[in-house]
Amino acid sequence: MFPTVSHFISYLFGINIPLPFNTFGVFVALAFVAAYWAFTQELKRKEALGILKPLKKTVTIGTPVSTMEMVSNGFFGFIIGYKLIDALLNYKLFVADTQSFILSGRGNLLGGIALAALFVYWAYKEKEKTKLTKPKTTEVTVHPYEVMSSMVVWAAVFGFLGAKVFDNLEHWDSFVQDPIGGLLSFSGLTFYGGLICGGAAVLYIANKYGIKPLHMLDVGAPGMMLAYSVGRIGCHLSGDGDWGIVNLHPKPFSWLPDWAWAYTYPNNVAGEGVPIEGCIGRYCNVLPNPVYPTPLYEIIAAFIIFLILWKLRKRIQIPGIMFGIYLMFAGVERFFIELIRVNSKYRIGDLSFTQAELISVILFIAGLLMVYFSVRNKEKLAKY
Predict the structure, then answer these.
(1) Angle between helix 321-338 and helix 355-376 axes, rounded to 10 deg
(2) Which helix (H) or strand (E) holds 376?
(3) Does residue 349 come out as left (phi exceeding 0), alpha (psi in the -120 to 50 range) or beta?
(4) What torsion do the CA atoms of 354, 360, 366, 372 make, to the nearest 10 degrees?
(5) Of 215, 229, 228, the residue nearest 42 (C-alpha)
(6) Which of 160, 185, 195, 241 has the highest CB neighbour count under 10 A?
(7) What is the pTM of this model?
(8) Which residues cross the membrane (predicted)?
(9) What are the residue ranges spanned by the domains of the chain?
(10) What's the rounded mean pLDDT across residues 321-330?
(11) Closest by Cα among 371, 384, 373, 32 to 210
(12) How far is residue 102's CA from residue 83's CA, in Å, rounded to a whole number?
C-alpha cells in the first residue's frame, strides 16, 4: 500500500523523496477537483440553456483597504508563517508526523510575524491599485459557475465537520475514550456525514446567488458520484480501514488478480493487523487474513454510476429527477457494499444494521419520492 505520496514515488521510481503528503489527503483534494469540474460544466450548460440565470450584483469599487481586511490578512498570514517556517526548519519531524505537527501548538513566532506583515502589506498594495478619490457603485454580472470557488470552500469545511461528527457517532465507544483525538484526527471520515453537511452548505451558497435548490441538486448529482469514486481511490491505496470482511473463498475467475478479490492491505495507515517482519517506521502492519477490497469495488461502481448520470443529464428535463436517481443509485450501491464491509453495528431487538445501511435505505426512499414528486408536478416544475 501507499500510506504517503513518498511511498508511491518510491514504488514507481525506487527513490525516497520525503514529502508531507498522505495519499488519502491527496485523493480527497483530487475528489474536490473532479467535483469542481463536473459542477462547473453543468452550471455552464444549464446557463446556456436558459435554465439558470446570471445574477446582477451591486458592488462598490475604489475603496481603500479596511481595518478588517488588514486584520484578517494579518491573522491568516501569522498562522501560515507560524507553522510553515517551523515546518521548513524541522522538515524531518514535520514529514515524520505531519498531522501531529500541524495540530500541535508549536511554531515559529518570527515566521508568523513576518508572514503577517507581508500579508497586510499585500492587502494594502492590492487595494491601492484600484483606489479612487471618490469610490463609486457599479453593477456586475455573476455567472452561476463563478460561484463554484465559494461553494468548494464551504463544502470542504462543512463536509469535513459532518464526516467527523458522523464517524464519531458511528464509533461512539472510542470517541468517548478520546473525544479530543476523535475530533482532531484527520482519519476516520464518514461519507454520508460529509455529503449531508457539505451538501447543505452548497445549497445555502447557491440559493444566495439565485440558484434554486432543485436545480443545484441536479447539477451536483454526477459530480458528487465522480468525487466519491476518486475519493475511494485514496481509501484503497492508503488502507484507511474501509475494507471488507475476511475473504478466504477461492477466486471465482482465474484471470482476476488476487488483490482484486482478497487483499491484506500491507502498510495500511489504520495500523490494523500484525507487524510486518523487517519493516521499520509508522506503517508496518498487515492484516493477518485477506479481506474483500471494498473500496476498489466502490471505485468501479461509483464511476459507472457517474457515467450513467452524465449520459442521462441532457435527457432529463424535469427538475429533481436527476438528483432523485442519484440518491437511489447511491443508496443501492452503499447498501450492498455494506453486506461485505467491516463496520459498527446497531441493534434494535433482533434487527442488526450499520449506520450506512440505515442511511442507504433512507436515501433510496427519498430518491424514489423525489422522482415521484417531480413527475407528479412536472407542469409546475417546468416554470421552476
Answers:
(1) 160
(2) helix 355-376
(3) left
(4) -140
(5) 215
(6) 195
(7) 0.85
(8) 20-39, 59-85, 105-124, 145-163, 183-206, 316-337, 358-375
(9) 5-54+145-314, 63-131
(10) 96
(11) 384
(12) 7
